[in-house]
Amino acid sequence: MAGGTTVVSCGNGVPCLEQELADLGITLGDEFAEAQKEMNIAPIAEGLLSEGSQRIIWASKELGYNMERMPKFIDPVRCQKCGQCSLGCANNAKWTALDYLEEAVKNGAHVVYNTTVGRVLVENGKAKGIRGVGPQGQLEILADVVVLAAGGLGTPVILQQSGIKEAGRGLFIDLLVNTYGIIEGLNLLHEPAMALVDHEFHKSQGFILSPYMNSPRAVRFMEKGAQGMALPTHSLVGIMTKIADEPAGRVYPDGTISKPVTERDWERLRAGSSIAKEILTKMGADSKSIIVSNPQGAHPGGTAAIGSVVDRDLQTKVENLFVCDASVLPTAPGMPPILTIVALAKRLRKTLAP
Question: Which label site among 39, 92, 301, 310 has the fewest CB atoms less than 10 Å from its CB?
């Protein structure tokens, strides 16, 4: 949809993979600064924190952990603390890529909706446009330059259908589990999702911790079956463990996906959830009430990685065919990637229109 997953994100604005990209010859200092200013990124306002998150800060500090306010692209004046960031924002409190799309339209861009891109048209090793299906049937749109941004799952399908067979390998999804505990009188219902973050284990053990709770019982059923569905929403606190998982997955030309959870992934998930249990117990949760969800994924990427499918200018082996989305990330960030993707897009803009 227009705006992509920024519309249904948690609104987190943190830089990631800075060193990994620098090692590939990509420095994004200016682009990060520009994006942070445009997106109005700042640590979440203290007034938006629920009592549940305030207790998480206290318990973490008591245990020697460092839970901080998450940098957000959320306007604290407009935010109504509904807790539904991942379903979109009815109050327009959250920055989304629609801001850039609207700016492009004002400057003459033409947006085509309800159209699925199937492949890139390639002639003599050069991109010439795209072929897809729209409301009136098949169509072709010719262009001197094509930039794919269909995401970590969509882009590799288009690339493979366009003759770039090496695309689709190396899928990561930033695996996560949610650790839940029942604490009478506390929940995370009335604050932006992932209001806090603990980064201290990211470099050494490959995971971050952040408050998170899936409030719909149906979603918790998908997470942990009847046990998850039975948890009392208004007396429930959750802490997410999100890891940098191994790029062991694959997206196939027909769009099917394979994504195993490796033993190293399990080790990181267990290490993070163990600390989450400590914090919840310190907060007052009965240890017998604490459960850990099944693994889930949040940020699919790596399927057109820099150095294997695209070069450091984000160009494929097909001249004038570029990619700019999470699929180009060289390794799993284990952190929210939106700010880094925006910075990469700004760098690509300078490449295409210096």
Answer: 92
Given the DSSP bridges, would you call strands 196-197 and 68-69 parallel, antiparallel or unpaired?
Answer: antiparallel
Cβ-Cβ contacts under 8 Å for 94 (sequence gap 6 or more): 9, 11, 73, 74, 75, 79, 85
Q: How many residues are there in the chain?
A: 354
Nearest Cα to 147, choosing from 354, 345, 350, 342? Answer: 345
Q: Mind giving me the DSSP string for 10-52?
A: --B-----HHHHHHTT---HHHHHHHHHHTT-EEPPGGG--HH
What is the CB neighbour count within 10 angstroms for residue 25?
11
Neighbour tally for 47: CB within 10 Å: 9
Among residues 68, 71, 98, 78, the alpha carbon closest in space to that of 7 is found at: 98
Name the pTM for this structure.
0.96
Cβ atoms of 278 and 63 within 8 Å: the answer is yes
Query: CA of 349: how far to CAs of 128, 326, 327, 354, in Å?
Result: 19, 16, 18, 8
CA separation for the pair 337, 13 (Å, rounded): 8
Please give the Cα distance from 68 to 63 (Å, whole number): 14
CA 219 to chain centre: 19
**Could you tell me whether strands 116-123 and 126-134 are parallel, antiparallel, or unpaired per DSSP bridges?**
antiparallel
Mean pLDDT, consecutive 10-residue stretches, the chain (354 aa), reads: 93 97 97 98 97 98 98 97 92 96 96 96 97 96 97 98 98 98 96 98 98 94 95 97 98 97 98 98 95 97 98 98 98 98 98 90
Q: What are the distances in angstroms from CA 130 to CA 51, 81, 153, 328, 336?
A: 51, 42, 18, 20, 30
Taking residue 38's Cβ as centre, other Cβ atoms within 10 Å add up to 15
